[in-house]
Amino acid sequence: LLPNLGPAHKRIVRVEPAHASDRARWQTVVAESNAAIEDWAVTEDAVVVHRIDDVRSRLSLFSLDGRALGEIELPVRGSVEELSATPQGQSITFVFSSYLEAPTLYTYDRAHPKLTRLYAVKSTFEARAYELVQSHVKSPDGTEINVHYVMRRGLAHDGHNPVLLSGYGGFDVSILPRFSRAALYFIERGGIYAEANLRGGGEFGEDWHRAGMLANKPRVFEDFEAVIRWFSQMGLSHPGRIAITGGSNGGLLMGAMISRAPDTFAAAVSYVGLYDMLRYPLFPPAALWTSEYGDPSDPRAARYLLGYSPYHNLPAGTAYPSVLIETADHDTRVAWAHSAKFAARLQEQSQGPNPVYFYMERAMGHGRGAAFSELLRRYSRQYSFLLHALGMDAPKVRPLE
Question: Fewer CB in a 10 Å sphere around the end CB: N or C, the chain?
């Protein structure tokens, strides 16, 4: 499988046989479209292409000579992962999930076109009591930002609903509707859980990614701030009931929101983030990210990095929201010093009554591979903080042992 790595590499794919001796038999070119290509797989007589269309997964079938053969109908608006196919057969398998549908393993047989459920993760969640809503919010320059949010059906638009908004906006990463028990916990407490698809991500192809990188990075912050304000403008919530969260590049986003728009939300949970953008390449492997952020040794890049670097843009005497900053002492992706410095600076500059907490996990890394018990402790810590900051009732639970 050989992707075309030109400027339109998110929109076009060229598929050839793995062995050069077989290439005379067939060569497939899937034409460019407006949908970003995420993945593909090959059966004995067809190519299945996973595309992101309107911020959801679609599976499209093509013959080996590139003719469109229709789509595999997916259950709801959601996300496909682990796509694979049988090269000597007709079988296609993948995992599908959505905010209100637990991960499910499906197979599709082209010989007898039918989607068959093989296995589903067990969940006692009553999905019918909740709804998924898609909206679009205009950023200051007129760009429309997609927002998905889930909430209990019939939730009143009384301007008082607690909201937890997540964002990332970088490195060509696509944020699609996926199942999350942590999100379900929040909406079961009566909240609204939301995700914004910001520039810098991969949901709309490479142009969308480039629109939020290097000198364009501030557009990502403008997008997210617009979404935060939108929840108040639409009568769904107000600043005292809105919380935001993000990690890694999303932690940089949280730091930027704390420094530029602290009056628009009540609480922030930021984890393993970058905050000192003038020194980030000094901590390996961060030097590899200069293609995304820019190199501060370049005077032009240094100017725009200084313009938004959270550590350098915390005005003194400000009543900042409640903030929980987390990191890990074995994080080899983003140095823990970012979080320690930013938390200390924020504690020093804050003049309001809200707390700024710093927490460092021991013998832990950037997040992947964490034990289930560690994840439970992390979510228990973060949601205890959020529920208290937003004035929500927390259920009584047995302490973790």
Answer: C
